[in-house]
Design a protein that fits this description.
The chain contains three helices and no strands. It is mainly alpha-helical and 79 residues long. It has a domain of 55 residues.
Length: 79
């Protein structure tokens, strides 16, 4: 049973790291562009090395990331 908890805890840390990296990627992408549309962000996301599946960035996910970035880093992304 303990090994199950370790796996769960490990995957939780892994998921946190993945999300953190996505937040940093999003902030960096917007910062480098200055002004950028969601469509342009999505195009860059599809080519990003962080995007293992090559899938689009859902708009809802973008807004969730934007809100998390606001809370974690006190950076307001206008949309």
């Amino acid at each position: 049973m303990k090994s199950g908890k370790k796996q769960s805890r490990g995957s939780s840390k892994s998921n946190t790291a993945v999300l953190f990296n996505r937040y940093v990627w999003l902030v960096d992408t917007i910062y480098r562009a200055g002004r950028i549309s969601f469509e342009e962000i999505n195009e860059q996301w599809e080519r990003s090395s962080l995007n293992d599946t090559g899938e689009e960035l859902p708009l809802k996910t973008f807004h969730n990331h934007k809100n998390a970035i606001q809370q974690m880093f006190d950076i307001n992304i206008e949309s």
